[in-house]
Amino acid sequence: MEELIELDHKLFLYLNNLGSETWDGMWIVISDKWMAIPLYALLLFLLFKKFDWKYSVVTMVCIALLITCTDQMSNVFKDFFMRPRPCRQEGVTEFARIIAERCGKYGFYSAHASSTFALAFFLGSIFKKKIPSLIGYLLVWASLVAYSRIYLGVHYPGDILIGAIFGILYGYLLYLLQQFAVKKLKLV
């Protein structure tokens, strides 16, 4: 386990130090959850454009459950494992570029990675027949958001990887729930 943690620290320092002041502002914007509102608005528009309103409402309820699940489960893991973030880790902060203005106490696993990958997988699955290429674009977006957390100095790559895995799992489970609900309500 110690070797894995050491590898995570080294990979973090490598990826984090690829940054430069020129790009800092862009990565801060990518990481800011409020900056994704135009994307969410576009996805909401597409949802109502491609599906009827009842189907869309059931899907929105599932999205609310999905975001709640990803956020709360990451908090449970953070409180259980109590792994310090890189921006609070002695022996790491001295060599890292810490760009984030705030740094929470614990970082395992990344809620940003979990929620963006969950949304990407869930919505990509919802739209797979109507807009097949959407999942690819959403996964690229999720990957950029996830990397931004390393760039800003608030998560290790392991935090991101586990967050992404759990996000995809939650996205898949909520997709199954959504499909069950729309069939039960005879919306398809």
Sum up the structure in keywords.
188 residues; mainly alpha; Vanadium-containing Chloroperoxidase, domain 1; 7 helices; 70% helix; Phosphatase PAP2 family protein; PAP2/HPO_sf
Question: How would you describe this protein?
Answer:
The protein is built from seven helices and no strands. With 188 residues, it is mainly α. It has one domain: Up-down Bundle (Vanadium-containing Chloroperoxidase, domain 1), CATH 1.20.144. α4 packs antiparallel against α5 and α5 runs parallel beside α7. The protein is elongated, with a radius of gyration of 18 Å. It starts with a helix and ends with a helix. The relative contact order is 0.17.
Low-confidence stretches: none
**CATH architecture descriptor text:** Up-down Bundle
Mean pLDDT: 95
* Structure annotation, total helices: 7
CATH domain topology: Vanadium-containing Chloroperoxidase, domain 1
Instruction: Report Rg.
Output: 18 Å
C-alpha geometry: elongated
What gap, in angstroms, lies between the N and C termini?
48 Å
